[in-house]
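ok so for the tutorial part 2 we go from a plain amino acid sequence to predicted structure tokens. step 1 is just haveing the sequence, like this:
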Amino acid sequence: MDLNHPLDGGVLAIDAGNSKTDVALVAADGSVLGTARGGGFQPQITGVEAAVEVVARIVERAADAAGTAVRPGEPLVGHVSACLANADLPVEEQQLERAVHARGWGVTTRVANDTFALLRAGVDEPRGVAVVCGAGINCAGMLPDGRTARFPAIGHLSGDWGGGSGLADEALWWAARAEDGRGGPTALAAALPAHFGLTSMYALIEALHLGRIDFSRKHELTPVLFKTAESGDSVARAIVERQAEEIVVMAAVALDRLGLLDEEADVVLGGGVLAARHPLLMDSVTALLAARAPRAVPRVVAAPPVLGAALLGLDRSGAGAEAQARLRAHYEPVAPVP
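step 2 — the prediction. this is what the tokens look like for a chain of 338 residues:
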């Protein structure tokens, strides 16, 4: 098969997150011809062109794995389906779509936020809602007719709360106040510094502030929060329960916007915090969702989101169920919430 000419129905699928990027070359029949993984996609830090250049190097490796090469002026495939982190606003999607299309990898190009890849990976048709709770939190929904529901998801400014980074910040806040007397007692005041071999919150605050502990390591405190919550600490439990409420309210609002609140519909759950399946969080999400959207079916995605990006591409090309099944069989299946 010569991929150096537009491949009818063929897809270059890209799932680019903050920490890693997955690329797959997929034939019209759903066969995965070549894959590659590389570094994160951070246009807000490096700039758009530099971020797309990182992706370009990964595309070259995926093409090599498929037995071909990227050549100027010779599209690899008919369509590029790129689901990208930090494409939070439609204007950002448009800017990134222009930059990706300019690389000439496909005859047509579509860029979407990476939450749509998670959603499509977890549903049999483009219908439902997904909530990703990883470093941050986001939610997106879609219908087969192309309608979508989404949030800006750019942090506190757009009304968001939680995600791994936010949970760590919240745990630190309550622990600091517990130690200095401004707040009530919590086991977090001892558990958080102990994770780094320290004996007090003051020592941890000093170490983070002065850079003796890199601030990026605060994400290590999120599992400590969950462990403390599951041991019965009331403050830690309240933080986890609020995270469950935020996940469910985003899902319910998106379902309502799409007219799915009173219909059976999938709610796909993903991202590091949700994929860890912490019992307290998952039980709370399941119970709250049952109350707010009784017909919703929660699922945790086990397959990598690049599958969703590829499926979105096959949707565009009109690939049938057999091609989609072949593609899905290459990746992990979706697991229902126990």
